[in-house]
Structures are given as C-alpha cells and as structure tokens.
Amino acid sequence: MRLSTANIFDASIATLQKRQQHMQDSQQRLTSGKRIERASDDPTGAARAERALAAIGQVEANQRALDASRNSMTLSESALGDAGEILQQIRETLVAAGNASYSDPERAGLANKISGLRAQLLSIANRPDGVGGFLFSGQGSSNPPFLDTPGGVVFAGLPGSVETGNLDSFALTVDGRLAWEQGRSGNGSFVTGAAANSITGSPAKGWIDSGRVLDPKQLTSNNYDIAISGVAPAATYTFTNTDTGAVQSGAFSPGQTLSFEGMAVQIGGAPADGDLFQIKPASSDLKLFAVLDQAVTDLRTTNRGGAEITQANLVAIRDLDAAMSNLQNVRSQVGERMNNLDGSENRMAALKQYSQQERSAAEDLDMVQGISDFQNQQTGYDAALKTYAMVQRMSLFQYINN
C-alpha cells in the first residue's frame, strides 16, 4: 500500500487541528472553571446540574416567601402587644369604676376614657401590613377587616389566613375573627349572671361571681337557675338544672359558696326574696369590641344600685380578661410561627448548600486535573507539531535538490 505525500500532509494537519481544538476546549474549561460547558459535553452530568439548579431556585423562592411571612408575623406580634397594653389600661379603668364612692358623672368620665381606648384598639385591629393588605384580614382583603357600625364592630374579612411558600407553608396574615371575636366566654366552662327579680322584676340586690370548676367530670354543659327565697336569716336557695330538672336546695346566707354538679359559685351582696341568678354553658364567640361597648353602656347608665354596679363590673372584668387571654393565645401562636420560621430558614440554608455542592460536583472542573490535562494536551500538540514539521521535509524535491 502506498501513501502519497498529500495524504500524509492532510492526516498530519487534521491531527494538529484536532489536538489544537482539544487544547482550546481545555483552556476554555480552565478559564470558566466548568467541566460542562454544553449539555453535549456530559448529558448525565448536565441533567444532574440542572436538577440541582432547579432545587436552588425553589429554595430561593421559598426564602423570599419566608422573609415576607417573618415581616408580617413581626408586625402582627407587635400589634397584639400594643393591644395588650391598651387592654390593661382598660382593665385598670374598670377596676377603678367599681369604687362604690364614684358618682354617675365620674363613671361616665371613665366610660369616655374606655371609648377612646376602644378607638385605638380598632385602629390596631385594622393595622395595614405595609404591602397593601391588613394584618388581621384573615384570607385577605383590600379593605379594613373590621367595620364600626351602629350595631357594633363587625368583622368583614374572611376567617383563616393567607399562606405562601412552595416547600413549606408560611402565614402572611392572622385570622382576625379568631383573635378579636372568638374568646371563650365566662370562666371558660360556664357563664354566670344575674337576672331580674322573679317577684318584682327589678334588678337583683345580690351579685354572683364568675364561679369555678370543682370537678370537670361532673360538668354537664346544661343551663341552671339559682333562686333565692325568703330573707336572711331564714333565706334559702334552690339550684336547678333547667335541662334535666335536677334540684339542690338548702339554707342560704350572703357570701355563701354554692356547689352543684361540678361547679362552685359565690353569691354576695344582699339578695332579696325572688332574686334569680343564671348559669349557661360557655361558648367561643366572645367579641372583644362587644365587651367594651357593653362596659361603656353600663358605665353611662345612671341611677343603678350598688349590687347592679358590682355585677356589671364583675362581668365586664371577667369578659375582658377572657378576651385578653384569647389575644395572648393568638400572640403566642404568632410567636410560635416566628420560631418555626427560624427552623425553616436553617433547613432551607442546608438544602441550598447541599444543592450548590451537588451542582458543583456535577459541572465544576477539578482545577488540578484540568491543569494536568491541559499540560498533557499542550505537550501532545507540541509533539504533533514537530512531527508535522519533520514529515513536511520528507519530499522528493528535497532529495533532488540535495
């Protein structure tokens, strides 16, 4: 087999060009620091790097959602803290209103103070979140969630909360109805109150406290009446379960603690013959603004007796404490969400770092290996170039000339 000089030259040039291209590719990889410049360089590695890049994008999007949630929850927690401080001022005002020496005008002045604090609370309940929404709008609304109508404050939002995030769910709002309108009434188990005298129809001369639970197992969630008959020292009481008809009765004296079916209540003042007190099951529909409105109305009512003032004040403080407790529970939930955000942020940081390492392992160049390969290719190219130079001199014309 004979090879012409032209074929030898062409083969040598092709080899030189191939080695030069490989050397240029290696140089490009060294410059970029990437082992994979195109998917065709390593389809499997490119797919692996693409999956890692997608995971990094998800984490970064989730981080933005987390930051938005943290901002909203921080503002909500601050708002609930502000509300708690105002409610404490209202409570102190109600305690002062129970002073028997206060006149009706003085109590009306306290009512005006509570009314002003109520307006501040309404402003907090409608506090914006800084991005076009409201902190307590529930599932979102472009309008303030609480409306002050002639019949009282009404929640106009949607119960629940707005959540975001593609890996975890992060809350952007707080359920306004839960925070401001779903406190547990009474002492949490039952609600006590005074009714009109069954004989005269006038307000009771005695008052009943909030009561307490003696035995949770005996609680029935039924309705009860406590009727006072006669006058001291021959007065008696009749404790009746109006749902089942069960009755308990005995001698009564003011300040006495009465217990029946797992409950204990104290009736004070100077109860008259026919005074009636009632007990109802507690419910989760205590509205904070309704409590304040009732307290203001009571304080502005004139010509009330001492027992009536005491009873109204006890009820107002009891309900206010329940509403404050509910707000504090919601604030605790918001704080727990903020703690969870810290944990989620740590997990996302770890996931992002892992994805970055995975991407780097898939597409980044091992610089030591890359430099070694480049030097080997450069040496091979130099050798091929010298070989071509020698082949180029192997010509018949050179022999003829010699």
UniProtKB/TrEMBL annotation:
<dbReference type="Pfam" id="PF00700">
    <property type="entry name" value="Flagellin_C"/>
</dbReference>
<keyword id="KW-0969">Cilium</keyword>
<comment type="similarity">
    <text>Belongs to the bacterial flagellin family.</text>
</comment>
<dbReference type="GO" id="GO:0005198">
    <property type="term" value="F:structural molecule activity"/>
</dbReference>
<dbReference type="InterPro" id="IPR001029">
    <property type="entry name" value="Flagellin_N"/>
</dbReference>
<keyword id="KW-0282">Flagellum</keyword>
<keyword id="KW-0966">Cell projection</keyword>
<dbReference type="GO" id="GO:0005576">
    <property type="term" value="C:extracellular region"/>
</dbReference>
<feature type="region of interest" description="Disordered">
    <location>
        <begin position="19"/>
        <end position="47"/>
    </location>
</feature>
<dbReference type="InterPro" id="IPR049119">
    <property type="entry name" value="FlgK_D2-like"/>
</dbReference>
<dbReference type="Pfam" id="PF00669">
    <property type="entry name" value="Flagellin_N"/>
</dbReference>
<dbReference type="InterPro" id="IPR046358">
    <property type="entry name" value="Flagellin_C"/>
</dbReference>
<feature type="domain" description="Flagellin N-terminal">
    <location>
        <begin position="13"/>
        <end position="139"/>
    </location>
</feature>
<keyword id="KW-0975">Bacterial flagellum</keyword>
<dbReference type="InterPro" id="IPR001492">
    <property type="entry name" value="Flagellin"/>
</dbReference>
<dbReference type="GO" id="GO:0071973">
    <property type="term" value="P:bacterial-type flagellum-dependent cell motility"/>
</dbReference>
<dbReference type="Pfam" id="PF21158">
    <property type="entry name" value="flgK_1st_1"/>
</dbReference>
<feature type="compositionally biased region" description="Polar residues">
    <location>
        <begin position="19"/>
        <end position="31"/>
    </location>
</feature>
<dbReference type="GO" id="GO:0009424">
    <property type="term" value="C:bacterial-type flagellum hook"/>
</dbReference>
<protein>
    <submittedName>
        <fullName>Flagellar hook-associated protein FlgL</fullName>
    </submittedName>
</protein>
<feature type="domain" description="Flagellar hook-associated protein 1 D2-like">
    <location>
        <begin position="212"/>
        <end position="281"/>
    </location>
</feature>
<feature type="domain" description="Flagellin C-terminal">
    <location>
        <begin position="320"/>
        <end position="400"/>
    </location>
</feature>
<dbReference type="InterPro" id="IPR013384">
    <property type="entry name" value="Flagell_FlgL"/>
</dbReference>
